[in-house]
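Reviewer 2 asked us to include a model.

Predict the structure of this chain.
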Amino acid sequence: MNTAPTLVLASTSVYRKALLERFGLPFVTDRPDVDETPLLGESPPSTAERLAEAKARAVAGRHPDALIIGSDQVAHIGDETFGKPGTEARAIAQLTRMSGETVVFHTALCLLNAATGRVQLRAVPTEVRFRTLTRGEIERYVTVERPLDCAGSAKSEGLGITLLDALRGDDPNALVGLPLIALAQMLRAEGIALP
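Predicted model (structure tokens):
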């Protein structure tokens, strides 16, 4: 009897973990040790795609027979990127810069079959149009939601939705950090039964 391969999420993100739990499949998480610094001259989309695959490969040695999910997201306006702010001051600065602008949240997804070496890589961009925000609105938002661990300093799945005028993309889950539509397609291509 064939058993399904172990599913590994190469991430310690609580947001990605919660999204993957929606599939109802058993999985484990493993922390990838990857330097997330962009390479010189690398575009934001290329950074996200390279890092998604690097994260999957970083844990492959510990899970040689698993299907490994790596994902990375880079928020950007042109070549200007917005990472996880880490502090309230940086979150306020990011949101001030994004006020009235359209920001692309480029979410890359990699599914690595560690047993066969097969790599599936997809990118799912989401365009987010921020409304024009006042300093008071930004400060109140940062104080209430504390989006210090989110690229771009806003949680669209929470109160951050009030900062936006519009979203455009193929999968609303991609904006939160894990494109589930693309992931379901990849898992089915590896023989995993999903409804």
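The chain has a mean pLDDT of 95. The domain at 7-189 is CATH 3.90.950.10 (Maf protein). We have added this to the supplementary material.
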